[in-house]
Amino acid sequence: MTSEQANKLQNQAGFIAALDQSGGSTPKALMLYGVGEDAYSNEEEMYAAVHAMRTRIITSPSFGGERILAAILFEKTMDSQIDGKPTAQFLWENKQVVPILKVDKGLASEEDGVQIMNPMPELDALLSKANAAGIFGTKMRSVIKLASASGIKSVVDQQFEVGCQIMAAGLVPIIEPEVDIHSAEKAEAEAILRDNLLAQLDSLSADQKVMLKLTLPEEDNFYAACVAHQNVMRVVALSGGYSREEANGRLSRNNGMVASFSRALSEGLSFQQSAEEFDATLDSSIASICAASAT
User: Fold this and answer.
1) 44 and 116 co-located in one domain
2) Number of domains within the chain
3) Is 186 a catalytic residue?
4) Catalytic-labelled residue, pool 139, 153, 186, 213
5) Domain range spanning residue 183?
């Protein structure tokens, strides 16, 4: 982590590109990109295909640090190279994009209206590896499906417990308690979530900084107190299954939040496009997400 990277993430206009689809979501991401399951015959070939997709995005002239603050990587992407350089090093040195690592090991089964994160017994080793690779921060995701006070508290408690472990290793955690956009209790769940987030933020010491990655709320500017909190470096929004158009519309009405989109970023990109078509589509996508993040 460098002060230059921290300043960029805290103060520069732009957004975070989420390029961290992992095992379960990789086939779907490839399918949307126009690469069917018949294009690879095993897991190794599948990951090679998705790395090629991410490499094409990252090396595109449309993708750079003027508009993109950071990129969230899957561990295999961190371990891979782009143009002969480790991915994290390439992102910062060639693109001035801050590298962030997804560290969670997926979700536990739903219980009490939520899915907490699976145990991460090897997290310390992964954080050491991330530091050695020049990673700035981390991201980890839980999911909230119902307005369960006890369930939501367990999600936030776990996120901050692991977040403190990450901060102790010198990295900045992105805490992501996603509220399912299809939940019939979405607004109620968001109210419980906000109270729990603020309570945990208030318990941090002055030098402990986190980022929050949150579902776009039902009420505009609902997370304004989180955006303004002294311990929060940035509040970013996940697209959560909304189309890019709807995600951008919601985001533009939430002042101070910036995007951290995955599927909404790559929407419209395909393997079959020429370099010119691909770069133009990506440029248009980045421009629209940037504009929505600038409010």
Assistant:
1) no
2) 2
3) no
4) 213
5) 103-236
